[in-house]
Every structure is written in C-alpha cells, then in structure tokens.
C-alpha cells in the first residue's frame, strides 16, 4: 500500500514512512492511493474473529510494510480485555467494543420500528473512544522507533480527552517522552486526576496559565521552529495522524459483524463528531465495501459539519463563534480531518483540494450549494444533524428512563440525531465516545444524581498529582523540553 497527500504533491510513501507524521509537507493529509476492497465473502469470513484478529486483518491491508507476525503481535498486545476492562455490567469485556442494544424505536415516518444500540468504544484506560486508536499508536510507535534506533518527544496540547489518551498510551514506552500542555484550572477534577496522577518517568504534565488556545499556540510555535523540532525529535499525536484514523476503521467492522448474521444486511452508524476523525474512519470502512447504509454526522452547537452536509457551504468558525458546550470534546471551529473526505468527494483532485483549503485559510470557507457535487454527497451515505444542551439533557433522561442506561453528553448528541434518521429494518448503532463519569456534572443536572464510577477510578482525585505550572511562554516550554530530554 502506498500513500499520497490530499494536496497532490506527495506520493509513493509507505505506512512506516508516514506513521510518525502529522501534516504532509504540502499542508495536506495522508491517504492511501486506493482503498483496499473487501468482498462480502471476506466480511463474512471474519465473523468468528476476536477484536485483535479482526484488527490484524484490516490493518494488514494498510500496513503491509510491517511483517505480518509483528503486526499480529502488536494487535494482540493492544486489544486485550485487561486494557479495555470497563464494559457495562452484562456486556462482554472480551468483545473490546461490545454492542449494547437499547431497544426497538419507531422509525421516522412512523411505519415500523428498528433496533438501536450503542457501540461501546470507551472501555479503555481513559474511558473515551480515543483509547481505541491511541493504544495501538503507542505500540506502533515503540515498534517503529526501536527498529530505527530513534527517539521521539511528543508535544501536545489538550483540553482533556486527547491528552490523557496519549499519556496512557505512551506511558512507559521505550524511546518516547510526552510533554502535554493543559490549561490550568480548566479541566474537570476527574480529568486532572487522570492525567496528573501518572508517575511514569516519561510523562511530563505542564499546566499553562491560560486557556486551551494559549497551550495550542505554544505547540504550534514550537512545531514551526523546524530546527528545534528536528534537533529535539519533536512529534505530535493529533487526530490527523493516519494511523489513528485507520485504527478506528476496525470498530466499524466489529460493530457491523456483531449486529448482523450475514453481509446482505446493512447497518447505519451515528457518530458524535468534532474533528471528523471518527466518522472519517466510517467513510473509509464504507469505501472498502462494508455494507453501511448511512453515516450520520452528529454535531453539538458547533455545527460546521452539519451546515456543510445540509447546504454544501463549509464555513470555518472564528474563535469568538466557537461555543463552550457540555459536550466539550466536540467544540471545534473547523474539522481537521474533513479534507480527507473532500479529496474523495471531488474525485481525488489534489490541485483542486489544495486550492479549496488555501481558500479556507484566506476567506474562511467554500460554497458548493446548488452544484452537482452537492448531490453527489448522497452516494457516500452521509447525512447530519445537530444537538444542543437542552437536547442532551432530554436525551440523557429519555435513555435512562426507557432503557435504564446512563449515557455521556457526546453520546447523547449522537443518540438525539440518530433518532432523526431511523428507518425500518436498518439497525442503528450510536458510537459511544465516552463514559458518563467523565462529564458527571451534566449527568447530575439531567438525572439528579451523579453517574456510577468504575471501581478502578474510586478516589483518583485524592492521589498525589505531578504537574509543572508554567507561564504561556514558548521559550520557557522549549527550555523545559531541553532540560528533560538529555
Ligand atoms: C474526540 C471526541 C469526539 C470527537 O471525535 P472526532 O474524531 O474529533 O470527530 C467525540 N466525543 C468524545 C468523547 C471525544 O473525546
């Protein structure tokens, strides 16, 4: 498998060559030259596989420069029931991503019912779906660095979920250090405890006096200093990394296989979306031939993507137009993985994509309303909807009372929008992107009591915490990295 950039000027790279990369040098994102096709017979032949075996089958189509036995070992080591151990009572932990059926709901036109369920993606160490890809990335990075006798210093900024998923994936890994900036005093006590209580020698938590954007700006400034970046082996693990996207393709196959008896049946997926990484993996699974009926993009009040899929107008938001919501991991101003879909949608024309996204940088967006291309979106199965704080509260209440199941705020956005697209006989899986304990205060607002806490997390707020506080100063952060990497 060879990789290219969505902006046309990179080609013929292998999986290991792009594994540690973020953006391509031309500013584009990496994608495979073609999507490997998986026949219905092949899909059906994967029915008996464990999650780790399925991951190997899917990933080996993309990472064919890793010897099969090595890739198999990496998958087996990553997807274990010991790591993904927080499944709901009654769900099968060995499934890694169990399907938790809620029940039958009436479809949109009132003519019949269909089953709706949660695809549980949040049973990993940090209780959010980012563990699904990040845990694999930790093992892939360690493997690739050891092969080349290299080291990597990961620098990132987080408002919560990404940073903790990265730290739990990279902790104790040989050749890797993590420098994670977070906005001081802006995360929930639970999120702080998750990150700051790690005592591994290769993990450095830095609390920046400021907001998330201040932390993000520092990461950008350091990454733009190319000589510093090269000298100190600085890398990132943000959501545009190709390996993260492709790791997520696996659970669309797993969810499909657990919901059907044979591959003549179609399933719809509803995906709580921010940077379009998760649902981009669904798009890729569908392009590979997985029988997906609809891919439903669910946004919160930050509805850039809903607007695009409804109207063909893409309009990146300014910071002042970006809302802080009760599903904070979806609070985005533009969707960083969206360019991957646009590349496929516009016939894989790199020059056109380059032009379009340069236009986004200068004018803030593009407009495909009233065009043939807008009609063409339907053939990719995409539809969309949005959800607000009030919707979230009502949906959490409704799912709790109908099904005795507590869902988190992001999953609630997905559930709300999924209900707008139910069709008779097509099963609907809502991707559960976090467990409710991570967003306890909104759950309490909805239900009058806090969500239950997995026993492994009892009292984590009381553990000793290790964090270095710092002014929002690029030089100070650089010096800290220098002092801790020799
Ligand atoms: C990151 C995240 C999302 C958004 O995922 P994208 O891949 O950015 O679309 C949704 N929910 C939760 C809980 C998350 O952590």
Features of this protein?
19 helices; six-stranded mixed β-sheet; 40% helix; Rossmann fold; 486 residues; five-stranded parallel β-sheet; globular; binds pyridoxal-5'-phosphate; alpha/beta
Annotation field: number of helices = 19
The CATH architecture of the domain at 99-127 and 243-453 comes to 3-Layer(aba) Sandwich
- For the biggest β-sheet, the strand order reads 3-4-14-9-10-13
CATH class of the domain at 99-127 and 243-453: Alpha Beta
Morphology: globular
The small-molecule ligands in this entry are: pyridoxal-5'-phosphate
Structural class: alpha/beta
Low-confidence stretches: none
Please give a structural write-up:
- By secondary structure, the protein is α/β, with parallel strands linked by helices.
- The protein has a domain at 99-127 and 243-453: Rossmann fold, CATH 3.40.50.
- It is built from 19 helices and 15 strands.
- The protein has helices at residues 15-18, 40-45, 51-60, 68-78, 130-148, 161-170, 189-196, 212-224, 226-231, 242-259, 277-288, 304-311, 338-345, 350-363, 372-376, 389-403, 409-418, 440-447, 474-483, and strands spanning 3-5, 30-32, 99-106, 113-120, 152-157, 176-183, 203-208, 234-235, 267-272, 292-299, 313-315, 365-367, 382-386, 427-432, 468-470.
- The strands form 4 sheets. The protein has a 6-stranded mixed sheet with strand order 3-4-14-9-10-13, sandwiched between helices. Strands 8-5-6-7-15 form a 5-stranded parallel sheet, sandwiched between helices. Strands 1-2 form a two-stranded antiparallel ribbon.
- Strand 9, helix 11 and strand 10 (292-299) form a beta-alpha-beta unit.
- The longest helix has 19 residues, at 130-148.
- It is globular.
- The model has no long low-confidence stretch (mean pLDDT 95).
- The site of pyridoxal-5'-phosphate has 16 residues, from helix 11.
């Amino acid at each position: 498998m060879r990789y290219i950039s969505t902006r046309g000027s990179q080609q013929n790279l292998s999986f290991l060559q792009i594994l540690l990369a973020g953006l391509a040098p031309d500013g584009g994102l990496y994608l495979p030259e073609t999507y490997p096709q998986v026949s219905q017979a092949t899909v059906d032949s994967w029915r008996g596989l464990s999650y780790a075996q399925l991951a190997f089958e899917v990933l080996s189509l993309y990472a064919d420069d890793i010897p099969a036995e090595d890739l198999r070992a990496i998958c087996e080591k990553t997807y274990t029931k010991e790591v993904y151990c927080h499944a709901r009572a009654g769900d099968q932990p060995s499934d890694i991503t169990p399907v938790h059926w809620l029940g039958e709901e009436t479809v949109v036109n009132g003519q019949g019912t269909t089953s709706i369920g949660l695809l549980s993606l949040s049973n990993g160490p940090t209780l959010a779906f980012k563990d699904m890809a990040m845990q694999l990335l930790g093992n892939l990075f360690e493997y690739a660095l050891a092969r080349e006798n290299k080291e990597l210093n990961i620098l990132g900024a987080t408002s919560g979920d990404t940073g903790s998923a990265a730290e739990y994936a990279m902790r104790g890994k040989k050749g890797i250090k993590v420098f994670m900036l977070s906005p001081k005093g802006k995360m929930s006590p639970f999120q702080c405890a998750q990150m700051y209580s790690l005592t591994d020698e290769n993990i450095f938590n830095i609390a920046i006096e400021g907001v998330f954007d201040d932390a993000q700006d520092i990461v950008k400034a350091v990454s733009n200093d190319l000589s510093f970046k090269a000298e100190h082996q600085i890398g990132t693990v943000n959501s545009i990394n190709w390996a993260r996207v492709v790791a997520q393709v696996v659970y669309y196959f797993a969810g499909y296989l657990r919901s059907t008896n044979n591959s003549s049946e179609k399933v719809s997926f509803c995906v709580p979306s921010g940077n379009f990484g998760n649902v981009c993996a669904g798009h890729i699974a569908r392009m590979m031939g997985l029988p997906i009926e609809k891919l439903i993009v669910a946004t919160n009040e930050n509805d850039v993507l809903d607007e695009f899929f409804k109207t063909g107008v893409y309009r990146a938001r300014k910071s002042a137009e970006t809302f802080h919501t009760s599903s904070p991991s979806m609070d985005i101003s533009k969707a960083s993985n969206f360019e991957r879909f646009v590349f496929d949608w516009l016939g894989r024309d790199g020059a056109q994509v380059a032009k379009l996204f340069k236009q986004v940088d200068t004018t803030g967006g593009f407009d495909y309303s009233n065009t043939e291309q807008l009609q063409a979106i339907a053939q990719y199965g995409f539809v969309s909807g949005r959800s607000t704080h009030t919707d979230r509260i009502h949906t959490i209440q409704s799912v709790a009372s109908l099904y005795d199941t507590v869902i988190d705020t992001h999953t609630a956005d997905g559930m709300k929008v999924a209900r707008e697209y139910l069709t008779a006989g097509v099963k609907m899986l809502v991707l559960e992107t976090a467990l409710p304990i991570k967003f306890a205060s909104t759950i309490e607002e909805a239900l009058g009591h806090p969500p239950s806490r997995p026993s492994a997390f009892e009292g984590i707020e009381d553990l000793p915490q290790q964090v270095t506080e710092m002014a929002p100063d690029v030089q100070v952060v650089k010096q800290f990295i220098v002092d801790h990497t020799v």
